[in-house]
Design goal:
Layout: H1 20-29, H2 34-46, E1 56-59, E2 62-65, H3 72-76, E3 82-83, H4 95-105, H5 112-115, H6 122-134, H7 137-145, H8 152-164, H9 172-179, H10 183-190, H11 196-216
Antiparallel strand pairs: 1-2, 2-3
Helix pairs in contact: 1-7, 2-4, 2-8, 9-10
Length: 217
């Protein structure tokens, strides 16, 4: 029995992605809180880490993300800001560009407790973002139906859309680059989503496409 001590017996559950219909419900429920809606929309539509809300900038209409990974190597050789792209909801086309414009103009600001954090307080930013969500009634309702949702589900939902939501999947290498991590990291944390609904939709899409090609021959 001694050899079992210190060894994990069950693998941790991966973070579940927020699905498009859940995200639409959340964004609609945040209409009365523009600051939190801005933060949630940017994280979800652009696949941000919550901590990256502290290092946002806009250049020629494009949303840029600074570095939040602090270690001796990254401090000595900081990476330039990466450009992120929206993976839009089909029902809310153009919403990401609208949010970027609002953020850049200052007409709507990020939540005050996030803006007031000291520079580099990335862990505190993630914690604060979670607190805002946990106090929101719409988020509470979504979690009641899907208890495994976490704030990181917003970022995972971005990866899910890139893989399963559109007529064509975004190549993993490109999706990983958009999210600011390696392909290995992407496969480890974002490549485990298979459910009955998704499998059925995939098979139907592939077989329908094959059938259509056969008819044209």
């Amino acid at each position: 029995m001694m050899e079992l001590i210190g060894h994990r017996q069950t693998a941790p559950k991966p973070t579940v992605p927020i699905k498009p219909e859940e995200l639409i419900t959340l964004l609609n429920g945040l209409e009365s809180d523009p600051s939190l809606r801005l933060a949630v929309g940017l994280v979800a539509l652009f696949g941000l880490r919550p901590a990256e809300l502290m290092v946002l900038s806009v250049d020629d209409g494009n949303l840029k993300i600074g570095n939040v990974k602090r270690n001796a190597h990254s401090s000595a050789t900081p990476k330039p800001p990466r450009t992120v792209q929206e993976l839009p909801l089909k029902e809310l086309q153009g919403e990401g560009a609208r949010l970027v414009q609002l953020f850049h103009s200052g007409l709507v600001k990020l939540p005050k407790s996030i803006r007031n954090l000291e520079a580099g307080a990335f862990k505190a930013c993630g914690h604060t973002f979670r607190q805002y969500l946990d106090r929101n009634a719409t988020w509470q309702s979504l979690k009641a139906s899907n208890p495994e949702l976490t704030p990181y589900s917003l970022r995972h939902g971005y990866a899910w859309r890139g893989a399963k939501y559109y007529d064509r999947s975004i190549p993993i290498r490109d999706l990983a680059a958009l999210m600011g991590h390696t392909v290995k990291t992407h496969m480890k944390h974002y490549g485990k989503w298979t459910d009955d609904e998704g499998l059925m939709a995939l098979v139907q899409a592939i077989t329908k496409s094959a059938a259509n090609q056969s008819k044209r021959l």
